[in-house]
Amino acid sequence: MGLFNRSKKKLLFKEVKNFFKEGNYQEALEKNDKFLEIDSKNETAWIYNGLIYEKLEQYPEAIESYDKALEINPKNALTWFYKGLILTNLEKFSEAIESYNTSIKYDSKIIGSWINKGVLLNELGNYQEAIECQNKVLELDPQNETAWINKGLILEELGKYSEAIECFENVIRINPKNLDSLFKKGVLLGNLKNYQEAINCYNKVLERDPKNADSWNNKGATQAMLGKKDEALKSYDKALEINPKEADTWNNKALILSNQEKYQKSIELYDISIEIDPNFNDAWHNKGVALKALGKHEEALKCFDKVLELDPTDEKAKRLKNEILSSKF
User: Fold this and answer.
1) 237 lies in the same domain as 289
2) Percentage of the chain modeled with pLDDT above 70
3) Is 23 helix (H, G, I), strand (E, B) or coil?
4) Contact (CB, 8 A) for 199 and 207
5) Is residue 307 part of a domain?
6) Is residue 290 part of a domain?
7) Neighbouring C-alpha atoms within 13 Å toward the C-beta of 327
8) Which among 244, 278, 296 is the end of a domain?
9) Is residue 160 classed as helix, strand or coil in its secondary structure?
10) DSSP string, 89-126
11) Are residues 324 and 268 in the same domain?
């Protein structure tokens, strides 16, 4: 290759990288195409082609580019990782796992391959293998927040709340500013019926982020579990000031009013919840209970019918519907 071509290649590839860095992906692709006309066996250029197509969300072309790179160097663990990312985006999870496995085969220290493989195994219901992947990451990098979070979420899904809490406590230790993990710790403590500790977590979130509507909502729900109804209502009101479009909070507030036998007012709030989310099963169910308490049986039946339309297996709705029908005879 002559000096001119080498200089031209060097200049072209510099332009490819600059355009890519600046987010000008179409220009980067055009320059890279010209580069590959000069040197079609350049592994790095094909990898860049894949990265550019990924940014353009042209996933089949990205895979084709990574395959070209792998023809040149089939042992490049990073290319297998990149291919796995595209297959994940295409929801081809089994193929993506194969790519991550190949990446790990050639370089067992690529953390992203372990993390993503674990996430996909969890999606496929292979929970123990998923945890093992996150544990492998933590062997390589004990301070990896993402792996601790992923492990915690899997353990939560398995109902292992105490172990999940330990994971999120590690996240908080590594990064005290991670409010999502502090919030999640509150949720898990609530699941364990450690309600006051859960409230303490939500309070810590709210100290740093007073407009965190989810924390106000969950704080209200936890206060309600402790029988602190008036405090719960105040928390729900705070949540709704911040986010009036949260159907769950309207339903939660209405439920307290129903428990206080303020049925008409609660029905108004259930209606707001249903207007926001017409398929919100709990709101339809609770509205039906309130209507039944007021003796408005026909309207209540419509609510329970809606519940059963959304979830034909709902035994409570079936029982309440039968009670109303039986009372007619």
Assistant:
1) no
2) 98
3) coil
4) no
5) yes
6) yes
7) 12
8) 244
9) coil
10) HTT-HHHHHHHHHHHHHH-TT-HHHHHHHHHHHHHTT-
11) yes
Q: Tell me which residue of 251, 248, 253 sits closest to 235, measured CA to CA.
A: 253
> What is the distance between the alpha carbons of residues 237 and 175, in angstroms, rounded to a whole number?
30
Q: Which domain holds residue 196?
A: 177-244
CA-to-CA dists, residue 229 to 254, 258, 266, angstroms: 11, 11, 14
Distance CA 182, CA 185 (A): 5
pTM of the full structure: 0.87
C-alpha–C-alpha distance, residues 151 and 168, integer Å: 9
Is 12 among the domain residues?
no
Question: What's the pLDDT tens digit per position in 252-278?
Answer: 999 999 999 999 999 999 999 999 999
**Residue 305 carries which side chain, given as an amino acid letter?**
D
The span from the CA of 190 to the CA of 219, in Å, is 10
Whole-angstrom distance, CA of residue 180 vs CA of residue 171: 10
Question: What is the number of structural domains in the chain?
Answer: 2
Q: Which long-range contacts (CB under 8 A, 24 or more apart) does 114-118 make?
A: 114/140, 114/147, 115/144, 115/146, 115/147, 115/150, 116/81, 116/84, 116/85, 116/88, 117/84, 118/147, 118/150, 118/154
- Rounded CA separation 235/253 (Å): 9
